[in-house]
Amino acid sequence: MDSLETRLHALVLSSLEGDKPAYRQLLVELTHYLRIYFGRRLAPTHAAHVEDLIQETLLAVHTRRLTYDVARPFTAWVHAIAHYKLVDHLRRHSIRPTVPLDDEMTGGAPAGELAAHDLERVLGTLPERTSTLIRKVKVEGSSVAEAASAHGISEGAAKIAIHRGLKALMARFAGDRR
């Protein structure tokens, strides 16, 4: 056994027998040991969490110290606890790279471009005047009066054309649900 294992093993044995100063010293040495352990395993972006992991591990050592098998190396037991605390931390805090589904399915084309393309294809199935009226009023936000004026028709005729065009699109693409 190396000197660290020997020293920690002696401290844990004494602390299990009720030696409070030995237990305090064990916690001090474990704190130093765990700071190095977690510091080497966490990315610099998670370095702020090292102290939290140390505290979680020390608490687990404290609450489970009576389960330690004194015939086995103490550092291996502490490593197992520290490893599980680290894994839990990474699961809670890790940022996994994600790819938005739109980009994945469209080969990187922005969703807005695809929607505009789809809209043009759908409106292309309608008569020119009707598709232009729907585009002006429903997509661009113009008033019915402005769209009607641009086409030289009455507001009523524009409303009817828009209504019939949308009804035709609904029947074609969503099924006629009357």
From TrEMBL:
<keyword id="KW-0805">Transcription regulation</keyword>
<keyword id="KW-0804">Transcription</keyword>
<dbReference type="Pfam" id="PF08281">
    <property type="entry name" value="Sigma70_r4_2"/>
</dbReference>
<dbReference type="InterPro" id="IPR013324">
    <property type="entry name" value="RNA_pol_sigma_r3/r4-like"/>
</dbReference>
<keyword id="KW-0731">Sigma factor</keyword>
<protein>
    <submittedName>
        <fullName>Sigma-70 family RNA polymerase sigma factor</fullName>
    </submittedName>
</protein>
<feature type="domain" description="RNA polymerase sigma-70 region 2">
    <location>
        <begin position="35"/>
        <end position="94"/>
    </location>
</feature>
<dbReference type="InterPro" id="IPR039425">
    <property type="entry name" value="RNA_pol_sigma-70-like"/>
</dbReference>
<feature type="domain" description="RNA polymerase sigma factor 70 region 4 type 2">
    <location>
        <begin position="118"/>
        <end position="169"/>
    </location>
</feature>
<comment type="similarity">
    <text>Belongs to the sigma-70 factor family. ECF subfamily.</text>
</comment>
<dbReference type="InterPro" id="IPR036388">
    <property type="entry name" value="WH-like_DNA-bd_sf"/>
</dbReference>
<keyword id="KW-0238">DNA-binding</keyword>
<dbReference type="Pfam" id="PF04542">
    <property type="entry name" value="Sigma70_r2"/>
</dbReference>
<dbReference type="InterPro" id="IPR013249">
    <property type="entry name" value="RNA_pol_sigma70_r4_t2"/>
</dbReference>
<dbReference type="InterPro" id="IPR007627">
    <property type="entry name" value="RNA_pol_sigma70_r2"/>
</dbReference>
<dbReference type="InterPro" id="IPR014284">
    <property type="entry name" value="RNA_pol_sigma-70_dom"/>
</dbReference>
<dbReference type="InterPro" id="IPR013325">
    <property type="entry name" value="RNA_pol_sigma_r2"/>
</dbReference>
